[in-house]
Amino acid sequence: MLTHLLERPEKPSRAVILGAQGFVARNLAEVLERDQIGCRRVGRGEVDLTAPGAAEKLAGILAPSDAVVMTSALTPDKGRDPATLMLNLRMAEAVGAAMLPGRCAQLVYVSSDAVYDWRSPLIHEESSAEPLDLYAVMHIARERMLGHCCGAARIPYAVVRPCAIYGAGDTHNSYGPNRFLRTARAEGKIRLFGEGEEQRDHVWVRDVAEILKLCLLHRSTGVVNAVSGKSVSFREAAERIAPLAGRAVQIELAPRGSPVTHRHFDITSLARAFPAFQPTPLAQGLAQMAAAMSRVL
Amino acid sequence: MKDASSAAVGFAGLSHLGIVSSLAAAARGFEVIAFDPRGGWCGELNAGRLPVREPGLDELFQQHRGRVLYTASLADLARCGLIFLSLDVATDDDNRSDTAPVRELIGQVAGQAGRETAVVVLSQVPPGFSRRMGRENFFYQVETLVFGNAVERALQPERFIIGCADPRAPLPEAYVRFLAAFGCPVLRMRYESAELAKIAINCFLASSVSTSNMLAEICERIGADWGEMIPALRLDRRIGPHAYLSPGLGIAGGNLERDLATVEALAAEYGADGGPAAAWLRNSAWRRDWALRLLHAKGLLARPGAVLAVWGLAYKPETHSTKNSPALALLDAIGAVGGSRVQAFDPAVTLEAGRYPRAVGCGSPLEAAGGADALILITPWKEFLGAPLEEVKKAMRGSLLLDPYGLLDRATAEGLGFEYHRLGAGRLSADASA
Q: Which residues numbered 3-32 in A keep a CB inside 8 Å of some CB on B?
């Protein structure tokens, strides 16, 4: 759960977003700019966090009053192998090394719900972390590495674990709303495994950005899941997306390769931390995503 | 030297348990000396005022207080052949017990009592505590006080469970005479068994509560009604007519939580599987926040200026105790950074001044409902049964009604335009809520 060091929201003098070109980073920057919160995006071109000397370069950018948000990661579509894992850990090592006393006012790490035991049907922040693949290992290891460094430097540290994120501009193509809308628009088809019975929580990227912003405004510490709190089946998601494609869409069923599992999130901790934050209903978020994708095309 | 068989019965530590138990002893004809070193409650009781609330306690007090001497003087216990230690064991936020005051009191009492005086601990102590005291004529007696039903249980106990250094050895005469006065079975066992028996009883209660809550929630989701199912369960001999089957907002009050924390600690220490206890506590926290999730889902926590009427602050009816109260957990959540504020009423509990900046105490249920967007009947006080819904609706601004225990009539409420929610009852056209 989160603890707020600032009960009343207070804008940080500047937010430094690591991983500037990423899906979450771009949305966070837009939200912060909209709310007139100073923001500096640091991309790979400026500081390659996997390269030698990255910590020193990053340290040269940071001011003591900065709030840092680390979104940088090589996502599973870039690789799921040990080499990718090690590159991801190197990034965290560099950021952690830059976290010396007084170097910044807060670090927020954007992790993932992948860290949780997939056998738990109802997840909360205290659910056991049991990473099943190297991507999940990467996130839990980075959470701990950065926590260790921030603890030693007495820098307030928060971890935000989003569930499956959807929204316009996502470069990932994993099974879920983003892929469904893409294939619906491009091919007039949405493919489901089995009957698409599995229930999952899908969170709109703008909601993730809002939660990150709230963590900055309250200088929060601890762990919170960025979720909608309402799981739906892939079938329901597909049926909601089909009418948004702008053409006739057929939902196709393919044999499933694994048993049906469901995953729900307990939103209580998020509601306690930010009672004034209301997750965007899936239908509304999907409509926003579709509208934004139409504008791009 | 006193005659132990006819001497007075002493109680040291005037807790809720101590007051009720000492009056029950007086009601059985014993002369009672009730000692408390703090003195404050002795003064209240000697002045004829009861510092705790309990159904039937006023009458018991009025009828039998003549046989009780309330005293802050330890020396008065010297006249007793049997002394019960009835100090409440405080628990911290993690439900861990602090037994230091009990040990201190035992030291004081033992210093005063002769070797022939039986000393009996009623306080909630963990397994191993009694043996470590290493005192002769020292016993542990399981207390199963239930707030709201304490008087009846003290006057007519189901059984006495006595922990002894050696269960084969006879009990002291004064203790035998006391136990016989209640006419119920006496079960003697070693200290450790008795200490764990107390915890075992609470574990079975917690498992019933958690099982009921788990299934009641599933009822809410699938359109079943837990209330319709309860009679079927009560008629099953393996479950029984007195089983804890009513759904509620988790486990509260502190006693069950303390014992579950003890089980978890024992399991961890001895390498046993304490997983079920952890699961019960987790389910309890989940159900405790039922109202919070519903209010959040309805957007009321986010709405600036939203007013929430909360009826009930005590953790259950007929008590002033708020230990682990779901109402206070809700106020805590709202009191952080939300936009809404609370108007609260409880028949026995007054809001602690300044503790909940977004909450105000009200003088009546109707006053609390005034201008509210939602009404939450979080403690099932009988005072709320059959509340005048028409008046309540007129007083309110909104129409959300959370009635977890079903104190109000759903059909009437919905007829008046309320959006009504209660535990354990789903709709067949299921709108899955919180």
A: 4, 7, 9
